[in-house]
Design brief:
The complex is a heterodimer of chains A (about 300) and B (about 130). By secondary structure, chain A is of the alpha/beta class. Chain A has a single domain, classed as Pyruvate Kinase, Chain: A, domain 1 (3-Layer(aba) Sandwich), CATH 3.40.1380. Chain A has helices at about 5-40, 45-60, 70, 95-110, 125-135, 150-165, 195-200, 220-295; strands at about 80-85, 115-120, 135-140, 170-180, 185-195, 215. In chain A, strand 2, helix 5 (about 125-135) and strand 3 form a beta-alpha-beta unit. In chain A, helix 6 crosses helix 8. Chain A is elongated and about 110 Å long. Chain A starts with a helix and ends with a helix. The mean pLDDT of chain A is about 85. Chain B is α+β, with helices and mostly antiparallel strands. In chain B, strands 1, 2, 3, 4, 5, 6, 7 and 8 form an eight-stranded mixed beta sheet that branches. In chain B, strand 1 (about 5-10) and strand 2 (about 15-20) form a beta hairpin. In chain B, helix 1 packs antiparallel against helix 2 (about 110-130). The chains are: A alpha/beta (about 300), B alpha+beta (about 130). The interface of A and B includes residues 38, 44, 159, 222 and 237 of A. Strand 6 (about 215) of chain A pairs parallel with strand 5 (about 40-45) of chain B.
Chain lengths: ~300, ~130
Amino acid sequence: MASLKELRNRISSVKSTQKITKAMQMVAAAKLRRAQDAAEAAGPYAERMASVMANLSTSMKDSPGAPPLLVGTGKSDTYLLLVMTADRGLCGGFNTNIVRKSRERITALQAEGKTVKIITVGKKGADQLKRLYNDLIVKRYDLGGGKNVGRDAASEFGLMVREMFNAGEFDVCELIASEFVSVISQKPRVQTLIPAADAIDDSVARPDLQGAVYEYEPDEEEILNVLLPRYVDTVILSALLENSAGEMGARMAAMDNATRNAGDLIDKLNLVYNRTRQAKITTELTEIISGAEAL
Amino acid sequence: MADKLHFDLVSPERRLFQGDVDMVVVPGEDGDFGVLPGHAPVMSAIRSGAISVHDGDDVRRTFIHGGFAEVTPDGLTVLAEEAIDLSSVDREQLAKDLTEAKEDIGLARDDHERHIAEAKLAKFEALTEALNG
């Protein structure tokens, strides 16, 4: 049985841990709101972009002049995976889930005989993936503590990916990031980025033209050339934003749990402490009484 | 609302404007074009420049950098990479940004950095032009 002093020390140490987790939970909650707002504010743009792209891609997909960003290089030998995780841990299974998903994907692709290249976004993903796939990681991209989650960063990142694509370094690009289902639920998902035509499914809403036909200015091909790079940037940006919202949500939930666990532990320790104290007093009393009786 | 045009201006970071207006003049890739209610469906790339929103006697000019306009029967949607309210532009700061962007091109160490610097310069030049125009 631990001594009273030891118990007191343990209780106070658990209490300070609880204070930390509580503070982290509140910080995460505040950041979550901001991240969620940012993700939601980016929504309309991404939506419109997707619907415009859907329109263009349906009409351009089969034309011979379609840009490779849209239809791909015609091969699928080399895959580039963008694995997006957080920069920091202490957010439950958030990072681990994304890494597990990417591991599954890498294994599946390698089994098909594809070459896989990885760009990691966020420190945690890089740390976890380098143990297994150090040779495959071509670039690491740090989030800089949330500073690099924004439009500038997304377009710089997009430019880098597009330059690699134009240099023929990969054929297909997939994005592995967390999907923000709700504050308490994030699901890792794999999303095709390039070729863009594969990424656009039929579920994207197209505007009802009431029988009219679009006029294109200058022409479809030109517009597509302008729009495709932006589309890539937009998808990356929404993924970054959604991911950081997910990270905060996961951290909030994890820290909430930790705070509650610390509370339970404190209750238990207090019980043990009180019992021990009581037992000690009883023993002392018994000793005094039996001592008095002996006289 | 047949006599008003529904106009949406969205940037990747937020929705900047949403509402009904009389007319919008968009700086298209091939020249400016005005959009009135009931305009035929058009998709157009946008060059960097000022977009004018006319509502009654009120004209609001906003600088748009890199974007795309789509006219559907529901109205006009402009997707702008970046939008700056022209009345809020600081001319001195702009002149400084312009010189800095020029320097950056000289300092660029590889293609990647040069692309970024060139894009920046083009933006600031267009902004200056819109401000003077």
